[in-house]
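Lecture 7 notes: from sequence to structure.
We start with the chain below.
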Amino acid sequence: MPQTLPSAIADARAILGRLGVDPAALDGGTLTARSPVTGEILASLREHTADEAKAAIDAAHEAFLAWRKVPAPRRGELVRLLGEELRAAKADLAALVTIEAGKVTSEGLGEVQEMIDICDYAVGLSRQLFGLTLATERPSHRMMETWHPLGVVGVISAFNFPVAVWSWNAALAFVCGDSVVWKPSEKTPLVALATQALFERACAKFGPDAPAALSVLLIGGREVGETLVDHPKVPLVSATGSTAMGRQVGPKLAARFARALLELGGNNAAIVAPSADLDLTLRGVAFAAMGTAGQRCTTLRRLFVHDSVYDAFVGRLKAAYPSVPVGDPRTAGVLVGPLIDKPAYQAMQRALDAARAAGGKVIGGERADVAGHDAFYVAPALVEIDHQAEIVKHETFAPILYVMRYAELSEAIALQNDVAQGLSSSIFTLNVREAELFVSGEGSDCGIANVNIGPSGAEIGGAFGGEKETGGGREAGSDSWKAYMRRATNTVNYGTTLPLAQGVVFDV
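Predicted structure tokens for the same chain:
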């Protein structure tokens, strides 16, 4: 008999009320918000029509025209206030992430902490939107570059990071002088409503310098997303999701010469070298492969283990897998919560069937007897396979780890790079030559290349991204702010003559 889990409905509604969401917005609509934890329907939200979405984008454009006039450090003050609202609401918002996305409590708290961290980062950035002074060949001239606000930034987010992705984009966009239009995943609309309510609280404290429609939330499905992608007043769309989604979004933006910031698939790999600290490696691999029930874009999905340590290490890994607690993510000690929905479970089972057909030996992967028919919990799966079959090259958004042997490091790096996705990667080694080769131009071709830490997780400050299949994009830290601005080169003549060409001076 399946476990009977406590209902999530009352808790979700109470949290939404405390965070400022109007209870009237939660009923009577066509978009069903469901908890993967219990399978319960939490709310039925009204969806925006395409015409409503267009009107909202037009309003966001008007907000941009006003917001760009506000000095950048003053814009940073709004983001500081948003960070304070997030700090005060951290426990509630994290609990709502757990209820609606199925993350264990520590991961929900970690996601909201990322929101707080990017706000802190952006506040400092608001005083550091630097351009360069450039050497010019013309006498009595000065040449420089300046950065200006870009416009409306469209954000399309996925269920697995239902609030952090918005914050990575929005915090930078706001200090850069842009407005934001957000279409969250249809699977996690409630946390988006809560986040928007917190932003509106920050705006109320900030005062009249924050125009109406500076941040707009669009609830709906594909039609609303297409409206956002197609609208001529949205010069940048940041989209997080599947590569299939990216293949549709990217060409549409390119057709109207808009910018695309795409964070898509991540069929991430790790290499276990002969010198690896196997205790550290075991912890790093297990968390990276099983955390968030394998539903991270940085989840570890492929593992290449050197012949000399394969039997010892994989034996320990196989013993660890059945011991990992799977269950209600609200319960202390549970490490693996549910898959987001039934299609995710079905995709996992199809992948495991394909792996068996390719000669793989599967451990785990069965459905766990938790919460009844409408919730989908699974035991994480470990697949030993002797080659990188096609199913191994295909990313399945579920806790499946494919394990393969290798003999030479060059072979392992080539296998790691031999997939279309290129988000994150790692090597476990105490050999400095192996580590340096891995992070060199001859090594990992991914946007993230780690040493002695798994591929999962990203830290605010280091730009996150590098999806090679689509050209990718970089969010959060480093110089990623430049994606949200436009650059101009300015030349100032402070002399009395006008040079036209080499050796020619026009003078009157």
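Points to note: Residues 268-451 form a domain with the Aldehyde Dehydrogenase; Chain A, domain 2 fold (CATH 3.40.309.10). The chain is about 40% helix and 20% strand.
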